[in-house]
Design a protein that fits this description.
326 residues; alpha/beta; Rossmann fold; CBS-domain; five-stranded parallel beta sheet; four-stranded mixed beta sheet; 14 helices; elongated
Length: 326
């Protein structure tokens, strides 16, 4: 049985991540007018951004295409080798061609360069080799800094792949912001799954109307217990004479005051000043607040500055929403 050198493994892991962090820092310092020109090309694109590459660069290209599409820039991936066998027709006038190649001299990608030129498509190249064929053919060249790969032989794409991925994210986000996409726009691009769920509004999940448990500060405790039992949310909000929220009583509060529930006052049992959130806030914001304050319920108000509860949302509501786990 092999003995595992835990300390050595950990040290190597830290060294790899440190090296890639240095590479990303250098990449950030190299962002210049070429990057801005690439973003402008995406914004001016009348059709789609076609992203291509081979090997590990191809895997990165596929992910970058997906990220662009998810952030409002129509895009799709074209396998470099398939392009030479008919799929080059997937690049059409009005497109922008974004090609990833670590060496810049990948043979399988070269037919794409001539095709792009013939139909007048802008070619954006990403490579570590500024003297490569890709960089010479590209209308816009994005050169990666000369940082060694993280593997011992400095051959397997590691650091270079990380930089390519980060550069793709930067292009996608910069283009998205230039388009002025709102949270609603991003949500529309993700009708299902985690992003779509978290970009939804609190109002979509909140308990409201007859489902919202509320009592006043002068309600007798036995009636409070009855209200909590009927509404089945494990808590109730407490409002003052003006209808503003002043406290919350949870099942835990009841257990802590079990000995005086018959005669105790609401204000002695409740937790004062419960957290609130506006109805138009995102579910993501609600989840962040719950985690930050280590609470499981937020009361919902109609607008900023108000403390008039119109609903409540629990962390269990978020976990059980239809898109959870998709």
């Amino acid at each position: 049985m092999l003995r595992i050198n835990s300390d050595l493994h950990q040290q190597i892991g830290r060294e790899v991540i440190a090296l890639e962090a240095i590479a990303l820092h250098q990449l950030g310092n190299m962002i210049d007018g070429s990057f801005a020109a690439a973003v402008d090309a995406f914004l001016a694109c009348k059709q789609r951004v076609v992203v291509s590459g081979m090997g590990k660069s191809g895997h990165i290209a596929r992910k970058v295409a997906a990220t662009l599409a998810a952030t409002g820039t129509p895009a799709h991936f074209l396998h470099g080798a398939e392009a030479a066998h008919g799929d080059a027709g997937m690049v059409m006038p009005g497109d922008v061609l974004l090609v990833y190649s670590n060496s810049g001299d990948t043979v399988e990608l070269q037919p794409l360069y001539g095709h792009a030129k013939r139909i007048g498509v802008n070619l954006i190249g990403v490579s570590r080799n500024r003297d490569s064929l890709l960089m010479r053919k590209a209308d816009i060249g994005l050169v990666l800094p000369p940082v060694p790969e993280a593997c011992t032989s400095s051959m397997a794409p590691t650091t270079s792949s990380t930089m390519m991925l980060a550069l793709g994210d930067a292009l996608a986000v910069a283009t998205m912001r230039a388009r002025g996409l709102s949270g609603d726009d991003i949500r529309a691009l993700h009708p299902g799954g985690e992003i779509g769920r978290l970009m939804g509004q609190v109002a979509d999940l909140m308990h409201s109307g007859d489902r919202l448990p509320l009592v006043t500060v002068d309600t007798a405790m036995p009636e409070v217990v009855m209200t909590m039992t009927e509404k089945r949310l494990g808590m109730t909000g407490v409002v003052n004479a003006g209808g503003d929220l002043v406290g919350v009583i949870t099942d835990g509060d009841l257990r802590r005051h079990m000995t005086n529930l018959d005669t105790g006052e609401v204000t002695a049992v409740m937790t004062p000043s419960p957290k609130i959130i506006e109805k138009t806030a995102s579910i993501k914001d609600a989840l962040y607040m719950m985690r930050a304050h280590r609470i499981s319920v937020l009361f919902v108000v109609p607008e900023p500055g108000s403390r008039r509860p119109i609903g409540a949302v629990q962390i269990y509501d978020i976990a059980s929403s239809p898109a959870w786990g998709h």
